[in-house]
Structure formats: structure tokens, C-alpha cells
Design a protein that fits this description.
Chain A: One of its GO terms (cellular component) is nucleus. The complex is a heterodimer of chains A (152) and B (739). The two termini of chain A are 24 Å apart. Chain A contains six helices and no strands. Helix content of chain A is 79%, strand content 0%. Classes of the chains: A mainly alpha (152), B alpha/beta (739).
């Protein structure tokens, strides 16, 4: 059982660091609350969909920015979507980056937009990494027979 | 043949005499017989004749006399004894009757005489009555003239028409040669000829008011005969040397204030006009009493009519003035409304426009902080972050203040923990205080409750503002914060005599005192402290970066919480004490007066009241959709998800109790969707609740949603608690209010 304890401690430290560093916010906790016996894989499902959607969105963003004539409204729409999904999942830094990105879209600043696209992409991959780690830890705990500690 | 003249008497010598006697006796008898007949005939004709009895007597007397004379016809000749006897009887009877009649006449003749007297008297009386009748008739006619005149005068409310009509009618009624009206001038020292009957344009003669003749007229309310040579009577141009009799009467010019109930106007008026009436010179007419009376009455009526006209003029003028003022006020009001609307529009726009870039700056700066930076760059970034945070606070403050000012601000009443509030505030200032090496102490009174009901955020804001000021303006020393439940005596501030807090069962007054040993405040500056943007002149220090709004906003919040805030200081360098008292609710009692959105006690994990509740969720965003669906299913609802407006309409049936629409998506017009949902269910007696899921809290958007027929708004990202309370609220009250 020590492994469980260790794993749990590791998990708690890790998730706390994620909160502290602003990668995740309270919304993630909400998601965790929704996971219960009737819905044991809720968080995983949501996060997976988030990853899928986001990849697609990033591709769309990249292609629309590379056009000859950039349709900023369309770009803004994509960013808006991205903002929505990241805030639903609790990916705070991604959301903040999207907020800033939208300003450049409003100003029709192509340079800013392309730079921010990179930033958003970066943040996304960062948070994806972290979330995957987190979920892996959860799996390990469950496999070791323990329960995932809930953070309030 | 010869008639039998057997009784032919012997004609003695004086047979002529005899003959004449004979004839006379005959005629006498005839007359004597005919007189009563005539009498009877005529008396029969006239019905009124007293003394019939006398008539009978007289008649019989005459008849008997006649009979006597008749019988004596026979006595001229030889006559038999029968005739003598008859004659004697007749004579005796006659004697009796005539004596009786004579006796009777003694009684009767005085009566008859008095009848005559009475008759004379009655005739006189009749003549007198006739005269009086004539007089009354004239008076009645006069009265009729006066009434008609009055009617003419009073039928108009125009002063000039009144006066002109008076003169014309008087002239006509009394057949005057000239009639004129002298009005007093503004100075009151002269009379000016204002209206005449014959001339359309009077010459404007002026006569001083102190003439004896004028005084004579003014001192009496009767019409006075004046000499035709007096200045007021000289109305015709020179040429006519003789004019008829002239009469003058005063016309009181009443002021409005003279209409007291128990005072007669004579006592109050000071101004008179003079009306002069001239009889035609070629008639020998004199002024009759009834004509004078007519003139007096008319003069009075004119006075009344003039005052009515004056009142009307006055009221018309007042009314015109009021109308003008009304129009001006209306214009001003509309201008003010436009200004307010412009102000509100400006604020609404600035609200969004100002916040977005500032938030972007803050977000980016915080992101920047996470990257690798040189120490200089880090310093710069920190400064940017601090400044932009300050800017954000300032913008929020300004917008808060505007909202506070136009009264659209509402407190967010919740249960809060007082202890937690104070400790959090303390924790926030502890770093700065420790840097400045200041001691900070916090103390609670023993009777302070753990929890209270109030606006936590704003209370914290006030507390932080006060404590922050204390820390800012204290260079060395200590800051002590003490909180207690206020007692009545300690609540009075000499500077706010109107503040009388009354604790009740449901509320108590929280008394907070923050005392510092800082730079103090000049007592004369204290009233200005709470005025926005007014900075104290003597603050001097360069780092006094008070925005000037903090105290003003705090004061407004405290006022909204039905409290009072004030600052005491003994002077510069002697520290200051800030005290505020606010009204908070006591938890656990009934609170109907508080805003209805009070979060209920969290229920157990599987709320049964939502079990099986059929809802539809529309969200284009896959992740968002999934999360919201998860929350709703967690609460027990049966969720049907759609990703477009058309799909939503297709799928929606009346068994669905709630429809959730994500309104942050630009591609779907949620307002139109809401309207179409209304239409779809207009025939049914119930329709599903429509709830908007909104990403950014936007007052304008919320209003638009509600106007489009939605029942409520829930902010995104959704939390379980929020959704739970939203659903409870919706199902219980049918309406979701802003939280």
C-alpha cells in the first residue's frame, strides 16, 4: 500500500503544482466532481475530446492564417471556439492566450496573430503534456488499488 | 156734444187765478208722481244704491204729496164728503210720512255728505296711485335698462370693450349728448380722458386729481350733479356754450386683493375713475332720481366687470407663463434624458472596450512573466503588470462609481464569514506592512457573530480600502483593526446627526475601527476626504498614489449597506482613525427582504428533484457540450445534445422542460432561436424554459437574451453548483435572476 500512498502523494503534489502554475483552474475540479460510478471515465473522455478538437482547430487556424487574404473573422471564430473548449476543461493558460489572441484578430494584426498562434500552440502542447501525465498517474493509482484523491 | 159740466165750478172773479192754480196743481201732481217713478227707474238701473228704505220713504212722501195735490184738484169745486175724507186721509198720511222723512233725513244727510267726502278722498288716492304706478313703471324700465346694460358689459372680458359698451349703452338709454370716462394715470396724480362716446379718439386731456369738484365726486358713492363749466365736464371742443346738465359718478377700480368676504369694497379701494354724463343741451331735461340711480348702479357694475377682466388678464398671463415654463422644463428634461442616455451608452461601451485590452495586457504580462527573462526585463514586466492591475482596478472603480451613482447598483447579498473576511484582508496587507515594519493587530469583540449576511465582495473592498490607506499613510508604528457589534451609543457621530441606526431582530450593526499612527489628517480636510478625486493638499509625499476614488466608493458602499463611515484625526502627524458601521443580516433568521437569489444549502449527491428532467442542450463546441452534458447528467437530468439551431428546433418536444443555448457563438443567432422556440410552443399551454449559457458576463447581452424571451442566464464555464441552483431557481420560480 505504500506504493499507493506514494503515488497519491505524487499525484497531489503534481496537481497542486499545476494549479499553482496556472495550467489548470477550478473548472478541472468541477470535471473531476462529475466523475462517479455512473460515469467513471468522464474526465478522460472530456480531455480526449478536448485534445482531438484542439488539434483540428489548430490546423484550421494555421491554414487560415497562411491564406493570401486572411479572413480575420474566421480566425476569430476558431480562436473563440478554442477559448470555449479550453475554459470548459480548465486549461487556464491556453484560455488566457486565446483571450489575447482575439485582440489581435480584432485589430487585424497578422503579425500578432501568427505569433500568437505559436504561443497558443505552445501552451496547448504544454497543458496536453501535463494532463496526460496527470491522467497516467490516476491510472497508476487505480491500478494499484487506490482511489484518486480529490482536491477541493 | 157738450161734456157734462155738472161739476163745472163757478168761476169766481179770480177764476184766472183758480185756473192757474188748477193747472199748477196738476203739473205738481204729475211731477210728484213721475219723480218717484224716475227714481225707481234709475235706482233699478244702478245696482249700487244704499238707503232703499229712504227711497221708499221719499217715494211714498212724494207720492202722497202728489196725491194730495191731485185730490185738491177736486176741491176747487164742490165736492162730496168722500172726496173730503179722501183728501183728509191723504193729507194725514202725507203729514205722517213727511214728518217721518224729515226725521229720517236728519240721520241720512250727514251720511250722504260723508259719502261725498270719501268719494273725494278716493279720487285723490287714485290719482296718487296713478302717479306711483308711473314711477314704478319708470323704475322698472330703468331696471331693465340696467340689466341689459350689465349684461352687455359683463358679456365681455376685454377691458376696452367693457368701457366702450358702458358708454354706448348709457348714452343710448339715457339719451345723452356726451358720456366720458376719466382714468387715473400710473402716477395716480392725474386723470386722463380715456374714453368718450362721440369721439373715437379722445384728445387725452389731463386733469389733476386734486380738484375740489373731483374730490366731491370721489367722496360720495352717489352720482353728483356738477357744474358744466368744470374742467372735467368740458368735453366738447370750444364752440358750444351751453350744455345740458352734467352728472359725474365715481367708478371704483378694484384690485384683486380687495375681494375680502366681509369687507365692503368701499373701505379698501383707493383708485377711482370718473364717469361724466352730459344731457343734451337742446332739451329741457333734468336729471331724474331714477336716472341717477341707474348711473350709480352702472358705475358699480362697471367696477365689477373691470375687476373680472383684470383677473382674467392676470390668470391668462400666469397661464402663458406656466406654459412657457412647462415647455422649457420639458426641453430641459429631454436634454437631461438624452445626456443620461448618452452617458449610459458611453459607459456600456467603455465597459467592454476598456476592460478587454486591459485584461489582455494583464494576461499577456503574466504569461510573459513565466518565460525566461533577464532581470531588467523581469523588472519591466513586473512594473507593467502592476500598472495594468492598477489600471484595471481604476477602471472598475470608475465604472462602479458610475453605476453606484445612477442607482443601478445592487448589493450581492450572501452568507459570509466575518472572521474569514478579516483574516483574508489581513493576509493581503501583511506583506506590505512587514516590509514597512509596521505592526498590524486584529481583534474581535466576544459578541461578534461568526457569520453574517451581506455583500462579501464589497465589504472586503471597503475594508481593504480603509486598511490599505492606513498602511499607505503610516511610515512607522502600528495599525490596529478592531471589529465589534455596535451598541446604540457608540453609533452616533457628531458629524452625522441624522444617522440613527436601529438594530432589530434580523440585523445587527458591525462596527469596525482602523487606527493608525501615521501622518494624520488636517481636521479641516476631513470633509473633503470622501469627495471623489479631491486629494489632500498636505499629503506631500510622492508615493501617495491614492486614486482619490477609493474613499468615495467605500462611502457609497457603506451607505448602500445602510451604514456610515467617518474618519477622525487630531491633526498632522498624530495618526488617524477610520471607523465604519454597516448593517448586516443575522444568518438563520428569515430574510424575505434580501434579493431572492440566496444559494440554498447544498443537497446530497443525487438530487431527486431533477431526476428524469428532460432537457435539450445546444452547444457547437464539442468539449463544452460534453462538459455541460456531464454536469446535467450528474444532476440527474436526461440530456439530449444538439449542435445547431435547426437541429434544436427539430428535436424539441413539449416533454423537454429546459433548453440550454450557448449564446457565445457568433454563428448561431440564439435570439432568433429563442423567438422561434416561443412560436413553436405558442399553441401549447406550456413551453420549455430557455436558458442561455454565456461565456463573458455581459449586461447588454443578458438584457438582449431576456428580451428575446429567454428565462435566464448561466455563466460559462458551468460548475455543478451553479447549474444545480440555476435549475432549482428555474423550476421553483420560473425565472432565473442574475447571480
Amino acid at each position: 500500500m505504500e506504493i499507493v500512498g506514494q503515488l497519491q502523494k505524487q499525484y497531489v503534489d503534481f496537481i497542486n503544482s499545476l494549479f499553482r502554475e496556472g495550467y489548470l483552474d477550478d473548472q478541472y475540479v468541477q470535471l473531476q466532481k462529475l466523475q462517479d460510478d455512473s460515469n467513471p471515465e468522464f474526465v478522460v473522455e472530456v480531455v480526449s475530446i478536448f485534445f482531438e478538437d484542439s488539434e483540428k482547430l489548430l490546423n484550421d487556424l494555421a491554414s487560415s492564417i497562411q491564406q493570401q487574404v486572411v479572413d480575420f473573422k474566421k480566425v476569430d471564430g476558431y480562436v473563440h471556439q478554442f477559448k470555449g473548449s479550453s475554459s470548459s476543461v480548465g486549461a487556464q493558460r491556453v484560455k488566457n492566450a486565446c483571450v489575447a489572441f482575439r485582440n489581435f484578430c480584432e485589430e487585424k494584426n497578422l503579425d500578432g496573430c501568427s505569433r500568437f498562434l505559436n504561443l497558443v500552440k505552445q501552451e496547448f502542447y504544454l497543458v496536453k503534456n501535463k494532463l496526460e501525465t496527470l491522467l497516467r498517474l490516476e491510472q497508476q493509482i487505480l491500478q494499484a488499488g487506490g482511489t484518486v484523491p480529490l482536491i477541493e | 156734444m157738450d161734456a157734462c159740466h155738472c161739476i163745472e165750478p163757478q168761476w169766481p172773479a179770480d177764476e184766472l187765478l183758480m185756473k192757474y192754480q188748477y193747472i199748477s196743481d196738476f203739473f205738481i201732481a204729475l211731477a210728484y208722481f213721475s219723480i218717484p217713478l224716475e227714481l225707481v227707474y234709475f235706482v233699478k238701473k244702478s245696482a249700487v244704491f244704499p238707503y232703499r228704505w229712504v227711497l221708499v220713504q221719499f217715494g211714498s212722501f212724494i207720492v202722497l204729496c202728489g196725491a194730495t195735490h191731485l185730490i185738491s184738484l177736486w176741491t176747487f169745486t164742490m165736492h162730496s164728503r168722500t172726496v173730503a175724507v179722501v183728501m183728509t186721509t191723504a193729507k194725514i198720511l202725507t203729514a205722517v210720512v213727511s214728518c217721518a222723512t224729515a226725521l229720517m233725513l236728519v240721520h241720512i244727510i250727514p251720511d250722504l255728505l260723508s259719502v261725498k267726502k270719501r268719494e273725494l278722498y278716493l279720487k285723490k288716492k287714485a290719482a296718487q296711485l296713478d302717479r306711483e304706478m308711473g314711477l314704478i313703471r319708470t323704475q322698472e324700465e330703468t331696471g331693465r335698462y340696467v340689466r341689459m346694460l350689465t349684461h352687455e358689459i359683463r358679456s365681455t372680458l376685454d377691458r376696452h370693450t367693457i368701457l366702450k359698451t358702458t358708454l354706448i349703452e348709457l348714452g343710448r338709454t339715457l339719451a345723452l349728448e356726451e358720456c366720458a370716462l376719466w382714468m387715473p394715470t400710473h402716477t395716480g396724480l392725474e386723470l386722463q380722458l380715456s374714453y368718450t362716446l362721440r369721439h373715437q379718439y379722445p384728445m387725452g386731456f389731463i386733469v389733476p386729481i386734486q380738484l375740489p369738484v373731483i374730490n366731491q365726486v370721489f367722496s360720495s358713492n352717489r352720482a353728483v350733479k356738477i357744474s358744466s363749466s368744470s374742467p372735467v365736464a368740458r368735453l366738447r371742443p370750444a364752440g358750444k356754450y351751453t350744455t345740458g346738465e352734467v352728472v359725474a359718478v365715481r367708478v371704483p377700480l378694484l384690485h384683486l386683493s380687495n375681494f375680502q368676504i366681509n369687507d365692503w369694497p368701499e373701505l379698501m379701494t383707493k383708485r377711482y375713475a370718473l364717469m361724466v354724463l352730459v344731457l343734451p343741451s337742446d332739451s329741457a331735461r333734468q336729471w331724474h332720481v331714477h336716472e341717477l340711480e341707474l348711473v350709480e348702479v352702472v358705475a358699480d357694475q362697471v367696477a365689477v366687470a373691470l375687476s373680472h377682466a383684470a383677473i382674467l388678464e392676470e390668470s391668462m398671463r400666469a397661464r402663458d407663463l406656466l406654459m412657457e415654463q412647462n415647455v422649457a422644463l420639458d426641453l430641459a428634461r429631454r436634454e437631461a434624458e438624452t445626456a443620461v442616455r448618452a452617458h449610459n451608452d458611453f459607459l456600456a461601451v467603455m465597459n467592454h472596450e476598456m476592460r478587454t485590452p486591459v485584461h489582455a495586457i494583464i494576461a499577456l504580462s503574466s504569461l510573459l512573466q513565466e518565460t525566461k527573462l533577464t532581470p531588467e526585463q523581469r523588472l519591466m514586466v513586473e512594473t507593467i503588470l502592476r500598472s495594468s492591475s492598477l489600471l484595471a482596478t481604476l477602471i472598475n472603480d470608475v465604472l462602479d462609481l458610475s453605476r453606484l451613482k445612477d442607482g443601478s447598483f445592487k448589493l450581492d447579498i450572501r452568507t459570509l464569514s466575518l472572521h474569514v473576511l478579516f483574516w483574508e484582508a489581513l493576509n493581503l496587507i501583511r506583506p506590505i506592512a512587514s516590509v514597512k515594519k509596521l505592526f498590524v493587530t486584529l481583534s474581535f469583540s466576544s459578541d461578534m457573530p461568526e457569520h453574517a449576511i451581506g455583500d462579501e465582495k464589497r465589504l472586503m473592498q471597503v475594508l481593504l480600502n480603509i486598511v490599505g490607506n492606513a498602511v499607505k499613510f503610516t511610515r512607522v508604528g502600528s495599525i490596529s483593526i478592531s471589529a465589534s457589534v455596535a451598541k446604540s451609543e457608540s453609533l452616533r457621530d457628531p458629524r452625522a446627526p441624522g444617522f440613527f441606526p436601529v438594530p432589530s431582530d434580523n440585523h445587527f450593526y458591525l462596527h469596525v475601527q482602523v487606527k493608525d499612527t501615521g501622518s494624520g489628517i488636517n481636521p479641516q480636510e476631513i470633509p473633503n476626504l470622501f469627495t471623489k478625486f479631491a486629494q489632500s493638499q498636505s499629503s506631500g509625499t510622492k508615493n501617495s498614489s491614492g486614486s482619490g476614488l477609493g474613499l468615495a466608493i467605500s462611502k457609497r458602499f457603506v451607505n448602500l449597506m445602510e451604514g456610515h463611515i467617518w474618519i477622525e484625526s487630531e491633526g498632522l502627524g498624530k495618526g488617524s482613525t477610520a471607523i465604519f458601521v454597516v448593517k448586516l443580516g443575522i444568518p438563520g433568521r428569515s430574510h424575505e427582504s434580501i434579493l431572492p437569489f440566496v444559494p440554498k444549502v447544498p443537497e446530497n449527491r443525487v438530487p431527486t428533484k431533477f431526476l428524469g428532467l428532460k432537457v435539450v442542450l445546444m452547444d457547437e463546441n464539442g468539449v463544452g457540450r460534453m462538459v455541460t452534458k456531464g454536469i446535467l447528467m450528474h444532476l440527474g437530468c436526461e440530456v439530449l445534445t444538439v449542435s445547431s439551431g435547426d437541429e434544436c428546433l427539430r428535436v424539441l418536444i413539449h416533454e423537454h422542460k429546459v433548453v440550454f443555448l450557448d449564446v457565445s457563438l457568433p454563428s448561431i443567432d440564439s435570439y432568433e432561436l429563442s423567438v422561434r422556440i416561443h412560436e413553436k410552443f405558442s399553441q401549447h399551454f406550456s413551453r420549455p424554459f430557455i436558458v442561455a449559457l454565456m461565456g463573458n458576463r455581459d449586461k447588454l447581452m443578458t438584457e438582449n437574451c431576456l428580451r428575446a424571451g429567454m428565462d435566464g442566464v448561466v455563466p460559462k464555464p458551468v460548475s455543478v453548483e451553479k447549474m444545480r441552483s440555476a435549475l432549482s431557481e428555474l423550476l421553483e420560480h420560473g425565472l432565473l435572476l442574475d447571480s
